[in-house]
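Hi team, as promised in this morning's meeting, here are the two structures we talked about. I've kept the exact order from the run log so nobody has to guess. The first one is mostly here for context; it's the second one we should focus on when we meet again. Sequence first, then the predicted structure tokens.
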Amino acid sequence: MGSQVKLLVKVHSTSIIASDLHCECVRELGTKSRTCRLILYISVDSLDGVTQVEPEGGWENPFLCYHTQVDCKNCNRELLEIGYLPLYLCADRMEDAQYHKALACPKCMGCGGLRILNMGGEPITVEGQDMPVMEIEFIGSFQVHEKLKLFYFKWICRKDDGNEEFLGPFCVDKDGSYAFSDSGDESDDDDDELFQIKGIKGCFQVTPRDAESIDIGLL
């Protein structure tokens, strides 16, 4: 994660380096970039009163990723799904970490891209819970689709009964439906409770720079 990866791509028969995507697009296409600040809010649907959940090792875990989709605003069409985007909670601890993705629309032939900047800063704290923060820079007429899915193999949770002890880790099933389960000690007949999280839902608060924040509900 700490080393920058050079990705060679072709956009309109012009080879560029993904890390140089911003300057290439601005110079050749006259396209301006725009940056959005993203705050991720997490909630949990559960049968057993579990609402607090976090990745094993905390939100600083560099392997926590999310899946989303990108739209071309010119064509008003869903362009592609992007998987395993890194979620940076405290990006100031990962000074060299950046993610670049070249984008091209096959219909209007528009090109550009996105990159996750390493300036997310400290998390937003709401009711004692840290909310992940990141910044994404878009080049060209692209935007993040409303659909979002968190992806990580091991999560821990805490029941809403005043007990501060965390349960888990709970593992993602093969279908990625985020149904987690963990049973108690099988040797104890009185401790056979089954903990199951039915699903994790997220909500992005998208805050463009120098603009009013907009709440977008996500599934």
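And here is the second protein, the one for discussion:
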Amino acid sequence: MNRSVLQDWVCELPFMQQSVLITACRGPDGLPKNHAAKVIGKYVRRCFLIRAFEKDECCNPYAPGGGSFTGPCTNAKIIEVGGVVTNTHRMWPHHTALSSPLCCEKTPLLDVALGLYLDAVDDMPHHFQTHIMHAAQILGACHPDKNVSDWWQHCYLRIVNDMHLNIESIEQMNKRLGDNEANWRAAEL
């Protein structure tokens, strides 16, 4: 019997927040396969979708499996810039406390990918960038695994800073994307 491709925790979110995550699944057209946007997009998908081949949840950015859609979140360019790191799938302490609030020691290649992504925002449509930013915001605020939510919160803050925007609080996000039309319209002004 088939089930939803969404991880269970996503189904507890308001429909508008679920929709934001789903719209972030699609990567930007016209970019090379090894572009950092593709790596960040893979990690977005890995953090809220069930992997099709394995039929499981895998938020470890470096674990093997997942095919090309939800596969490991690195490539030759990321490794070249980030240096040689071996056994990356063992680096993610999936159920241990973080020693750093920014996760940088735990996700070195993913942080390299984020840096390359932010260096290349002019390569991408602005609309795509906002999909990633809002997905990062939701994953940072709502993902049940603290390692994952901490990294996405870090990502959201870096994107907001890069775009010279104000940070939206979790309360503001929940009001804007809480399935209440009046609140949503008020936020659109």
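Starting points for discussion:
The chain has one domain: 8-187.
The chain is about 45% helix and 0% strand.
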